[in-house]
Amino acid sequence: MISSRFVVVVTIIFSIGLVPMALQAQTSSAQPDPVNIEAQFAAKAEAAGQEAEAFHRNGDAALVPLLPDRLRQNPQSILQSVDQASVPMRIAMAQALGNTVLSQKGVEESLLRRLGKDSDEMVRAATAVALHRVGDAWAMNLLTKELLNDPHRQVQENAAWALMKHRTLAARDALWDAFTKEKGAPIKATFAGSLAETGDDRVLPYLLTSLHRDLPFEKGQALRGILGLQREGVLVGERLVSALPPASLDTLDLIRIYPGDVAIPTLRTRLIKEDGSTDLMVLGWLVDRNESEAMASIGPLLTIATDAHQRRSLAQLLPLVPVDLIKADLETWITDADRSVRTSAAIALAQVDASRAASILRQEYENAGSVMAKRTLELIMAKLGFVIEKEEEG
Prior knowledge:
The protein is an all-alpha fold. The protein has three domains: about 100 residues; about 80 residues; about 120 residues, no CATH class. The protein contains 24 helices and no strands. The relative contact order is 0.07.
């Protein structure tokens, strides 16, 4: 039997995730030959002042790729050049320091201190990220006393992220102190989320309140914090169910927080909406977890559905359903007027008749009217192990 769970969603790719707050420096797409750049550095190596001048005059973008090596080989020259560098270059310096361990710790400290007190908030924000790998007292002091209290929110958020990465008692205490003192809702939510990701459950009451409020950013941070507490083994089992009864959560949060069997009984009750229609998100979730009643309902629902969007959404679930439950109607769907329905039915058919499924998909490929449609079919057929015979050009 050919597994086709990987092609349930034919044209739409869903992704949910929380991204660390990292900055990317803007650099020119046209990079000069690195050998020539290094030659420029070498030519200026007689005096640190001249080398610092090269940073400013020869072009920031060209020198960015060389920063890690220069930091390791001659960090003193970088330190002397920092005041002459442009803002993008200073951001790049901070980012390079976040990934480069210097042998001269004094120079590393001087550079990060300088960049952490930069006049530009984006440089300070990049420096906050870089400090996530430095556990020295001066670095913790810079993070907790200055960057965590910066007037710019991005700097504060990045400082909170860096402290979360430290996961020390001092870092937790700093985040807790910032959380309790902060009055502004968005940054307070960020502090709570970062603190929770360290496994500190003191913010749980706040997270629970925020999760049920209709404020997207705070709700997102609350979800981040609750999932963080779960990963740290703090909020699991009976305590999780007690704090967040499945019935108290909206459907999407329920799916995010309870990915296992605990959610299934509640989701079953939400399968049919108040207007009598089927909640397709709930149905898809149940089918993906092999819930038998949900899988058995796909065929009948697709047979009576008239809305084009609903029919396509239902058809995308066909490959997840055991073919015995839908084989009586496969012939009808394979010849459906909607290409998406035909394609999904052919993928499901591949479970029992790979040869015929390949023939149907090849015909769909030949008849596809757009490059995107052809590309989608190419990917599907490649995953199923089917070969597409293309005509040679010219």
